[in-house]
């Protein structure tokens, strides 16, 4: 990491923070998912089996279509929960990319120009606000 200067301190801080947090969350969640993989799979299997038996015996007033929908919902939840790398690459990246684009659009829509726009996205916007704020005072 290069030495942070006044003009890049926020941007460098958030780049490093994102790197550390992404690694921490990814490895921590992967370890947790490893422990919960089989108990969660067994619980879901029991739920589907008991719900199917309840429907066929008439104990529950649901149709087999509801059982199919429940099984598919549980399968998608299990896929997302137990395969964090897939979920992280697709869904979390989509959310991060969308928020960055939203930040860029909001910065471009400001009525006054930012003379010291540093970087891009929300990190660059926060760096610019810091520069402008410290020049006022």
What does the model show?
- The protein has 137 residues and is an all-alpha fold.
- It has one domain (9-136).
- It is 80% helix and 0% strand.
- The protein starts with 8 loop residues before the first helix and ends with a helix.
- The model has no long low-confidence stretch (mean pLDDT 78).
Unreliable sequence segments: none
H and E string: HHHH
The percentage of residues in β strands lies in: under 5%
Counting H and I runs of at least 4 residues, what is the number of helices?
A: 4
Cα Rg: 24 Å
- State the oligomer: single chain
Report the structural category.
Answer: mainly alpha
Span between termini: 29 Å
What's the β-strand tally?
0
Q: What's the domain count?
A: 1
Q: What is the share of helical residues?
A: over 70%
The dominant shape is elongated
Largest sheet: none
Could you report the average pLDDT, rounded to the nearest whole number? 78
What would you say about this model in short?
By secondary structure, this protein is mainly α. It has helices spanning 9-57, 64-82, 84-108, 121-136. The chain is built from four helices and no strands.
């Amino acid at each position: 990491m290069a030495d942070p200067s006044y003009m890049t301190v926020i941007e460098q801080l958030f780049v490093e923070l994102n790197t550390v947090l992404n690694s921490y969350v990814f490895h921590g969640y992967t370890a947790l998912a490893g422990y919960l993989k089989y108990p969660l799979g067994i619980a879901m299997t029991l739920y589907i089996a008991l719900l199917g038996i309840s429907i066929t015996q008439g104990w529950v007033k649901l149709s087999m279509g509801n059982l199919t929908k429940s099984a598919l919902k549980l399968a998608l939840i299990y896929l997302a929960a137990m395969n964090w790398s897939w979920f992280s690459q697709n869904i979390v990246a989509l959310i991060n990319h969308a928020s960055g684009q939203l930040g860029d659009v909001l910065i471009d829509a400001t009525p006054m120009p930012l003379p010291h726009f540093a970087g891009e996205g929300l990190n660059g916007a926060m760096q610019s606000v810091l520069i402008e704020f410290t020049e006022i005072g």
